[in-house]
Amino acid sequence: MKIDGRPHTSCAGRLCFWDSLPHPVASSVPDRYLSRVMAFAPNNLDLKKSESLTVEWEDGSVSVYPIAYLRKMSPSAEARKLREELAKNPLTVLPSTSKRGGASEGPLSATSAELVGNYAIRIRFSDGHDTGIYSWEYLREIDPDREPETPRRP
Fold it and tell me: How many domains does one find in the chain?
């Protein structure tokens, strides 16, 4: 994983997947879960704090997530609730202060990121938000360039 073009020290510039886990831990993961996680696994992550998160996926595709988009689409309970309220009522009043009790200074940016196990990344934002854990599967679902699925006819 890279942050602002530099390898992240805890990963030595690469993601550490199941094959790097001690054998007893890796063998305790059910095969059905392991295959699902690995189906969504990225090969590389590159976080440019003021711009975007770029993900190179196992299948060769590349996704680019602008920082503001990631913040808006945070999988945290509070962000999900806000999105639901906005869907019901577009005139919903948006929060005007950061989570930590003051207005964010300057444009929104990522302040840091960390891998969560082998299935997700947590991103901390300059507005104080840090409770969203972006699983690889969720990142695939919210890919800005992903073609919308066409509904199936019964």
Answer: 1
Q: The CATH number of the domain where 45 resides is what?
A: 3.30.2020.30
Kindly state the tokens that stand for 138.
């969720």
* Helix/strand/coil for 40: coil
What three-state secondary structure class fits 125? Answer: strand
Q: What is the radius of gyration, based on Cα positions, of the chain? A: 17
Task: Please check whether residue 133 is in contact with residue 115, taking contact to mean a CB–CB distance below 8 angstroms.
Answer: no
Mind giving me the DSSP string for 51-67?
A: TEEEEEETTS-EEEEEH
Q: DSSP code of 45?
A: E
With contact defined as beta carbons under 8 Å apart, do 138 and 65 qualify?
no
Q: What pLDDT digit, counting tens, does each position of 79-98 carry?
A: 889 889 999 998 888 776 55
Residue of 147, 77, 74, 71 whose CA lies nearest to 111: 71
**SS3 (DSSP) at 7:** strand
* CA–CA separation, 85 and 94 (whole Å): 10
Tell me the whole-structure pTM to 2 decimals. 0.69
- Give the structural domain span for 24: 2-141
Residue with tokens 């009790």: 101
